[in-house]
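#struct-pred

JT: dropping the chains for the assembly here, can someone run the whole complex?
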Amino acid sequence: MAFKQITSPHAHASQNTSKVMQLVVWATVPGLIALTYHFGWGSLINVVLATATAVIAEAAVLQLRGRSIAFYLRDYSAVLTAVLLGLALPPLAPWWVVVVGTLFSIVIAKQLYGGLGYNPFNPAMVGYVILLISFPIQMTTWITPLALLPDGVSHPGIIESLSIVFAGLNPADGVTGATPLDSFKFSDGLLVDQIYAQNPLFSQAGFAGVGWEWVNVGFLIGGLILLGSKIFTWHGPVAMLGAIAVMSILFWDGGSSDSPGSALMHLFSGASMMGAFFIMTDPVSSAASNRGRLIYGALIGVLVYLIRAWGNYPDAVAFAVLLANFAAPFIDNYTLPRTYGHIDRRRATEKEEDQ
Amino acid sequence: MGHQPNDVQAMQEFAVILVSSILINNFVLVQFLGLCPFMGVSTKLESAIGMSAATTFVLTLTAMASYIVDVLILMPLGLIYLRTIAFILVIAAVVQFTKMFIEKSSPLLYRVLGVFLPLITTNCAVLGVALQNASKDLNFMQSSLYGFGAGAGFSLVLIFFSAMRERLAVADIPAPFEGAAIAMITAGLMSLAFMGFSGLV
Amino acid sequence: MIDTIAQYPILAALIALVGLGILFGGLLGFAAEKFKVEGDPIVEQIDELLPQTQCGQCGFPGCKPYAESIANGDAINKCPPGGQTTINAIASLLDVPAPELDAEHGEEADLKTVAYIREDECIGCTKCIQACPVDAILGAAKLMHTVIADECTGCDLCVEPCPVDCIDMLPVEEGIKEWHWPAPVAPANLIASDRRATQ
Amino acid sequence: MKTWVTPGGVHPPENKHQSLTLPIGTLPLPEKLLIPLSQHIGAAATPCIEVGKKVLKGQVIAHATGPVSVPMHAPTSGTITAIEHRPIAHSSGMLAPCIEITSDGRDKWKKHEGIADYEHASPSTLLKAVADAGIAGMGGAGFPSAVKLNPGRQRPIHTLIVNATECEPYITADDSAIRERAAEIIEGIGILSQILGNPSNILIGIEDNKPEAIAALEPLVLDTGIRVASFPTKYPSGGEKQLIYILTGKEIPSGDLPADIGMVCVNIGTTYAIKRAIVNGEPLISRVTTMTGDACGINRNYDTLIGTPVSHMLAHSEFNEQACSRLVMGGPMMGFSLTSSDVPIVKTTNCILAPSYDEIPDDEPAQACIRCGMCAEACPVSLLPQQLFWYSQADDQERLEAHNLFDCIECGACSYVCPSNIPLVQHYRHSKGEIQKARAEKIRSDHARERFEFHQQRIEQADKDKEAKRAARREAAEQAKAKAKAAPDSAAAGGNPMGGSAADIIAAAQARAAAKQVSPEQQQAKFERSIAGAEMRVQMAEEKLATASDSSTDEQKNILNAAIEGAKQKLEQAKARLAEHVEQQNGEQVD
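RK: done, full complex below.
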């Protein structure tokens, strides 16, 4: 009788990459709901449009490379990238913004490097940064949160939203506005308390910024679900959020006009939570070991704060993630865990074992 | 901030120069200077570290030497128009000196750096530092620091980049993009990320 | 003095540049003396990476001379016994791109071979003994010779001189102790890779 | 009792209940048994019987080769029918030397008895008995027990750990052995302790998923100093290094053995074999093996003779080949797949697993590694499997070693959790093999270099020697030549009457030099002798001519005449030279 020669182990856990990716996609739902509730249909349209673009782009590249399209599409990584990019883009952004960003994400940042598993940079963030630098106006036009809409104005309905996105119609007055980080950054000469009192984005907020705080809570919930299902370890997100908190407490000067803002505001504004749980946890482009992820996360946190506080960009998660991606392979070389039976950690560049 | 004591102010100034030269005006990723060693010596981490050390050394030394030549010789004699040629002379001498030093102290590094070591002479980053120093009217300390910062910035991105390229060596990159092509794309994406530093300081 | 010179810009420029030249020339002259280098330790490192078959397929009488030649800038792809692995290792040492094996010097053998003398046919001429670069052949004039298989590098230098063609290069058999798992192969229909197609 | 927790680990479904419903059984005697000569780590045993010979059960059929080796014994009585290469239980599916015994069906033991009064026997006597019984570690690695139990004086053993962990799913061989043979096992541990010089600490490490086994052991260890340490179930806890850490919190330094930190770890099956060897005098010829998996109708443990073909076992377990997805020797995590069911059970075989496709489906194609890090979380020795995989693909041996590839115990936890179905362990095994090959080649090439350098030196030396010899010979030749020149040999001197002036001078000088050495009287005698000789030759030639004149042809006569003429000439010359010589002598005397 003849049998197959197969390497051990023979047993296999039920987890697989497609399931992981799908779970991450589902975990964005609380955040998406919050976005849709507070900012209208725009985000949902972004997500759908980006997903369609991503799947087509990925299939096209795979076709060009002569790979099995079905096999690679089934890993859902393109969908995940598109969903994350769609969530990060401003709602009701023109369709070409979404399409261009997604194309850059999938084609340049992912497929040129060989596809899933090989991309050194987070594809969604590459797409985002390219858009931010190329189309600053479209990228900084946000929607006013539901609670702050002027009387008689509401978010555009689904049909109207579609025509804004695809036909270039202008949304009604008052529907677009600044984000909390934006308005905070450009309120020079005002004390923090004054900003909080004068700007409805803060004065009518629960604890950080109208609408935004709930979006962040939504992503936090999704992130905790993923953490609970052991999709990633706590090291990265905790290090990143911790670093943001520590930096903002360190530089909180009691609320002077130079103050870059409170820890609470930084943690629950902009893309903090989404960055911490959905962007920087992208394992492909992050550091490999737990210790490496602590350093990697902290680096992102520090960079986010630095750029938010003193740089030109009000939100900095995308830049910070890309910069940390750049550093990740280097971090990996010097953060190997201590292996059983060894006294010290080793460096990846070590030539021979020191006996 | 004008009321703060002088040394604190000086310290802040130095910090600004460093941050500016390392991150915001990074010679490679923002000013696009010194790209040939950046692409050429980044396939291996070890040689990248060696190249970084050599370049930083040369940059600092050149910044100092060119300052001295500029202030003590060119300015008094009204020969500012000779800056470029005088600086090139300075750079050539410093690089040659570094080359001899490395050849003696680390033959393998010497071999690994190969043609790029003498090429530091023509590394535009070096001349760039000397000329920028002169045009910015920095003093001796500031010039040296600027030179060192430029070297540190170069080292930072070169070392990170080489660690990344080592990883890319295994990636399943489409054939037309293998090697230098994907490295250029990576450098481009990096430079994109470095735009995030603009406005800092 | 400075004023005088400053009045004649050409003179000033001349003096400044010549002065600088002399200054740096002196400095470099001093450095050249101080950091004088003798010998080339890289040869040893290259020699370490060569397979030491001493087969001479590279055109040099042994591995060491080839190592010296590489250190002096010769091509690194002339060693068929080492094959691509050796080329890659040297390329990595010298940090140059790894070329493919130069077919002019021979092809990389898939299997390691050792010489084997058909002892019945051996006439005891000692020609192969003289050809062997590692003294792996035992025997004396008019007596049958034999190869010490463990010492044989598989260079096949002994095959040519044998007047009765009684030397075969036989592949070394891989026993159960030498066996190790092959690398897993990706399913063919998934990776119809463009990368491999170009190679 | 305090236990420690190893990093990583996984919790695969245990699947142990199937094979525990029935007690340990025995199989009918197989017709043919196949005993591989290498069932252990170390040198293969050397056969000491010939084909055709009859053997009794327990009789030695192969001797140990060297110190790290074990002998083999006939598992049953019968005839040796072959000593040749056969497929054995090895991942490669390759052949290896085996001894085949055709059973005579009588299963007749050779005479055997244990060591009476073993409690008072010396450790060396006991060790010899263990070695002679052919016992090698039965947990999986198969390290010769007698070697392991003899760490030497400089490594005193303070802790003896008995490994009853059996952390792999499906396997219940140790569990059922403890349930049924606890007393004998404890006796075996006592013997081990005696051999090791009564270590202060004796622990039985067992996972808490075997409550029956723990219950069987606990009453027996009271007042023996042995402690039963149970700890939470996790795979892999049964690795020697892992178990030592779990029980003592100590790590074995990389590359060292447990004995280097004063510990010895022995599988619980081995302790039973040692008891049987010492007390009953039985060599290791059978072991408990689990037969399990859904492709078999009967799942249970068997007391199997070493050498029993797997096919025999399957045949008695209602095996359904169509339903079987693969055939595994060992457990689902570390066992290796068998390509043929003809291979025999060996001393290290604790389980034969014949799973159905539902239990263990065919492997799915590997997807890209997304560096998710689940493997690193599962790794029990804190490696970074994703990095190892990356460098294994790149064949970057330097980085692999820097990432401690050789500390990988190949437990398979990383592959088990990998969401992309990457056969990580196979990558590591491949890379380990490649690195070992490279190391061996490095040694070979260094050796070749030495030999080449020596060769060159030798050639150089030989050339030098040759040159020196040639120089010496040249000198000797010149001297000889000088002698010859000086000697007024008739042919030499006479053949050259009109040489060049320079040559004449030299010849003269040489002649003078020679003349000084030879006394004139001697020379005169020599000349006279040559004259006498020449006269003789002339005479003989003339006689010949006289006798030949009647019968010979003109031609022959001419030759003879010429010879006479020549001889006469020589005679003349010799006379002339004598005269010259005498004249010279006189002249010299005058001078």
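JT: nice. Chain D has three domains: 18-353, 363-451, 490-590. Residues 363-451 of chain D form one domain.
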